[in-house]
């Protein structure tokens, strides 16, 4: 599916109307293609703190060129500011001192990352100053423009060596539709990310299980995980068997057809993964439904069905896989929440409840998992799919334009975020819920 408005504003008459009427003019976003460098350009590094000395070397490992001082006339593809050394409110002006002179020297689709210390792990003035970074980055994300993104990464003391996978994701086109987010590293698991021999194939030798994999976001998740080296096992309902088999054959994958709400579904899934693949490394709970109605018109059957598919089934399947030790050490459990579960949505009380529950699911397990297993979730906003194409035109346009990028996301944007979570180098990334919504202007 495509954004017809974006095509229109690129036409001669569209450009004229944008200029004279002040209409939204979305930038075509850079997106990653296999074989591309992570960053096409130079990243300027600044600030002071625990990571400032190591950042150039870390970026070099990822093949990213960096500079430590602004050069006259130079254009930058990214900025990284180490704010871990900011311990008082007065020192927050260092943000302005670094960013203001360079904001007009950013290329299109630039990436900005601020690194801080988790406020919960410090006290007094330092806690206040570190918490202030969230307002700064979220506001900058809404003014950077030209397809740029801004993120805040809180790194716990002692986890400075665990930021590689996160920097690689947030500084690259893989994070095209992720902005205004707060990522926490090392705040749950006392384990660090693994070193990777090949950053282009981080999932080589891994088995990934994806529900709802026959089309839409699920299909794209399967494709991206396969691109990164994983053996994909896709699941969908029997009615979607033909589509599922076609996709899995293209990816040299495996498949399983069943209703995830069936009483024996968790046991059947666990048996299949254990017997055919010796276990699983990545579990992506993508399958979901909407049965939208205002609560006054809702029925118990419809309300309950949404909760069963979107929330109860992932909980039951995960419990079975963990109980039977089907999830391998350093494994990944990844849920798909929604912006509706954070901000709510008209006519979606059941859907929003189920997706907020996915966030609760992450919170409930983040501190209980062992052997380097992590749990995280994505929360998509308006993603252009066949399902959203059926949304009435006016509602669809509002959904696509009311974000900092003035456009809808693509299924690949969700998939890339999941692939970042899935990386063996992301072990210290645990208990996070990252929105893939272009940074909605209102509500979240």
Number of strands: 13
| Helix count from the secondary structure assignment | 15
Cα-to-Cα separation, first versus last residue: 26 Å
Helix fraction, binned, reads 25-40%
Pfam families: adh_short (PF00106)
InterPro entries: KR_dom, NAD(P)-bd_dom_sf, Sc_DH/Rdtase_CS, SDR_fam
Keywords: Oxidoreductase
Organism: Nocardioides kongjuensis
Please, could you describe this protein's structure?
This protein is of the alpha/beta class and 444 residues long. The protein folds into 2 domains: 31-185, Rossmann fold; 207-436, NAD(P)-binding Rossmann-like Domain (Rossmann fold). The protein is 36% helix and 18% strand. The protein contains 15 helices and 13 strands. The chain has helices at 4-9, 12-21, 55-61, 93-99, 124-141, 164-170, 216-227, 241-250, 265-277, 300-323, 340-343, 349-365, 386-389, 393-401, 411-422, and strands at 42-47, 65-67, 76-82, 106-116, 149-155, 181-185, 207-211, 231-236, 254-257, 280-285, 327-336, 374-380, 433-436. It has a 7-stranded parallel β-sheet with strand order 9-8-7-10-11-12-13, with helices on both faces. Helix 7 crosses helix 15 and helix 9 runs parallel beside helix 10 (300-323). The longest helix is centred in the C-terminal third of the chain and has 24 residues, at 300-323. It is globular, with a radius of gyration of 22 Å. The model has no long low-confidence stretch (mean pLDDT 93).
């Amino acid at each position: 599916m495509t954004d017809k408005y974006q095509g229109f504003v690129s036409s001669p008459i569209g450009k004229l109307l944008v200029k004279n009427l002040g209409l939204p003019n979305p930038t075509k976003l850079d997106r990653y293609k296999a074989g591309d460098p992570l960053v096409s350009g130079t990243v300027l590094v600044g600030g002071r703190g625990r990571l400032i000395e190591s950042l150039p070397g870390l970026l070099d490992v990822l093949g990213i060129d960096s500079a430590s001082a602004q050069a006259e006339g130079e254009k930058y593809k990214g900025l990284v500011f180490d704010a871990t050394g900011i311990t008082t409110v007065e020192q927050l002006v260092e943000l302005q001192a670094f960013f203001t002179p360079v904001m007009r020297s950013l290329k299109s689709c630039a990436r900005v990352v601020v690194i801080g210390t988790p406020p919960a792990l410090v006290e007094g003035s330092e806690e206040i100053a570190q918490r202030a970074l969230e307002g700064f980055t979220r506001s900058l994300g809404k003014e950077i423009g030209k397809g740029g993104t801004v993120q805040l990464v809180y790194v716990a003391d002692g986890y400075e060596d665990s930021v590689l996978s996160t920097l690689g994701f947030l500084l690259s086109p893989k994070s095209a539709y992720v902005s205004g987010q707060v990522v926490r590293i090392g705040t749950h698991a006392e384990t660090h990310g693994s070193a990777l021999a090949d950053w282009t194939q981080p999932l080589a030798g891994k088995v990934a299980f994806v529900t709802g994999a026959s089309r839409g976001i699920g299909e794209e998740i399967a494709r991206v995980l396969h691109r990164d080296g994983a053996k994909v096992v896709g699941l969908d309902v029997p009615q979607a068997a033909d589509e599922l088999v076609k996709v899995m054959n293209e990816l040299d994958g495996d498949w399983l057809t069943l209703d995830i709400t069936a009483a024996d579904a968790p046991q059947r899934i666990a048996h299949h993964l254990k017997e055919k693949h010796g276990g699983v490394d990545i579990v992506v709970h993508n399958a979901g439904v909407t049965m939208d109605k205002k609560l006054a018109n809702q029925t118990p059957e419809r309300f309950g069905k949404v909760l069963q598919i979107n929330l109860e089934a992932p909980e039951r399947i995960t419990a079975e896989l963990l109980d039977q030790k089907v999830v391998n050490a350093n494994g990944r459990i990844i849920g798909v929440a929604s912006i509706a579960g954070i901000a709510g949505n008209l006519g979606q009380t059941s859907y929003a409840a189920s997706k907020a529950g996915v966030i609760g699911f992450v919170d409930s397990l983040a501190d209980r998992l062992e052997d380097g297993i992590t749990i995280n979730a994505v929360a998509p906003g308006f993603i252009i799919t066949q399902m959203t194409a059926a949304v009435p035109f006016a509602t669809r346009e509002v959904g696509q334009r009311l974000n900092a990028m003035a456009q809808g996301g693509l299924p690949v944007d969700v998939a890339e975020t999941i692939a970042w979570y899935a990386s063996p180098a992301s072990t210290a990334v645990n208990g996070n819920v990252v929105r893939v919504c272009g940074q909605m202007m209102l509500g979240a």
